Amino acid sequence: MAMLKIGQRLNTREGAVVQVERFLAAGGQGEVYEVTSDGQHFALKWYFYPTTSEQITQMEEMKKAFSLDGPFSKAPPDSRFLWPITMVSDPKERTFGYLMDLLPSKYQGLERLVLGKMRPVPNFHILCTAAIQLAESFKNLHARGLCYKDINLGGPFIDPLTGDIVICDCDNVRYNKTPGNIIFIFFAAPELIRGEGNCTSKTDWHSLAILLFYMFVRHHPLEGKRQLQINVFNELAQREFYGNKPVFLFDATDNSNQAVKGFHDSAMRNWSIYPKFLKRMFTRSFGIGLHNPDERVKESEWMSSFSRLRDSLYYCQHCKSPNFYDFEDHANGNHQSCWRCKEQSPLPMRLEIGDVTIFCTHHMKLFAHHTHQRLNFSDEIARMTQHPHKPDRWGLKNTGSEEWIVSTMEGKTLRVPTGRSLPLKHGLSIQFGSVTGRLLSK
Amino acid sequence: MTSFSEDVLFSNSQTQGRNQLGDGFSVSVQGARHVRNDTPCQDSSLYLATEEYVFCGVADGHGDKKHAMSHIGSKLALDVAHPILFDALRSLTQPISQRDWPTIQSNIEKRIRWEWNCECKRYMGEQSPTGEWTQELLNFGTTLLATCHSANGTLFFQLGDGDIAIMNDAEEVQFIFDEDDDVTGTITHSLCRPFEENVSKCTLLKLPTDVRMVLLSSDGIRDCLQGDRNRFSTILPWLNSKRDDDTDTLNKWLYSISNNGNGDDISLSIHYTTTNNDLSGVLPNGNA
Prior knowledge:
The structure holds 2 protein chains of 2 kinds. Chain A is of the alpha+beta class.
């Protein structure tokens, strides 16, 4: 039976009236309702009544987080967190709740993605965008000295059409090292499982790496051969495999937990399509990073990596499958074949800006990150556009605020102001402010 | 189709047992079509009552040329399943959250597959095999339906076609799992294929105290009843009423069903409970 009645009125800590409109969902800690306050719609999370001493302690700790010096007393560190707005009191003081914004219906949970149930199915470009946004959101949270504590597939939601994200379940956010760990064993850092230390941004880094691995490989990075050799994967086994002796599924030196044909086929196939630079990031996360938290991959590194991955995306001209081009192989003289049809495909035109290479595919966008401000993915400066009358012709549209100066191979100079497009042509040099890019088709 | 008289010589295998949890038996009967084609019964079944648990299982070997060793595969499936299910049941005493169950369930299937792969490879002559999947395993293709009962509860597992049902004192029948909606016709999920997520079904139940009978059946009987689950459910009270009949009568009846239907092998495993567990409850994935 629902804890609150439809139409019931409650008060926020500041005295504003909140009216319960409808039940939305129930979870492990409480129930969520849609409510109205002063004509606006919100979500109200209402905690279950604590019954054990442990739950009473947890509730007291939760109340502290809402105090004036707690993490929720300030504005959210990033607008993508569905941040607690204010506390709502129980007239009988048995429990309490908090208000937050309603989650727009276009967002879907990452669990649906991993289970293959997300519709429409987000493409790789969108997944990379979502990964960048996730890393950026947690970077902003950590920059404030906070940690999320419970990163798992249930918290983040993505818009499968754009890759925009929202992160829910923020009520466990605390200042770094606040006592009272939350251990969801599949995502928890090994040292937390072993009972060493408290949650920090570094324990979040481990959980974030698992989350990203799930998004791109669709498998848990520490679940391999060893799991097949025990009858029951119970808590004891999980503590051993995730806490005491974790070994990466694709560890290059320790094959005790390697992926096994017939059991981890999709993980092996998915892993094989990514360029080496991304594999190195995961290998670091689940190699040295398992044992040395300082060596874990930081959010800014993930942002750069998934931007690089997005920039290396192209489509096989034979079977139309998305592929990621491994420029390291290219530098070594190896020519890449499509992972699906095994054919070698002509590559699209590419834009080289310093050490960054971006394929000019139909959804390519340039951000300040690519030219003058690393990790700035908010300020777009260019995107691919179709010719309005000749849809088979594509150009690079200036969507930034600065005019481009373009030099042709013949020595001519062109100017491309904001809002205008530049037809793609091999050999063009484009001056983006102080940085020069070069269009190449060979 | 040629009709066979009911006194034709057909092969059957049978196991039975009894302990403090109840008694029961399993039987596999060579189908009429297999008698006619002189092909072995590809099904296997097992009823095993030990001091601590009861195991019931049926496995339906696929039987066509592509799965020429499926009569071995079905037997090996039951051999590997019962220690794994019992071990799992013994360990799963604590409350299991919705969040943890999918991992435990998936691991039970992987574990059965790994050991089954090893045993099939041993049968093929490998000395120290690993459970890695190979193409040759297709020869051994089989389904697997199994339950393990102990004081902790009952663990149900199903991979592929067939039915697991329970019947209470009032002769009300309930199926443990929904029917697969992702396979059609003669296609079934099989142990011989590489592992895929969400293919097997598994649940841990504390059976209600009024449950008297647990039945596992390969798809042989239901296919002979035009696949109708409602018609199939009527055989539980009927079988219960014939509980004291001799096994020869049951075998002949099963053969007769096969002969009048599609001629497939038929396997049953039945457990009659005698305990009065005052426990009830359900974990994810089951219908009970």
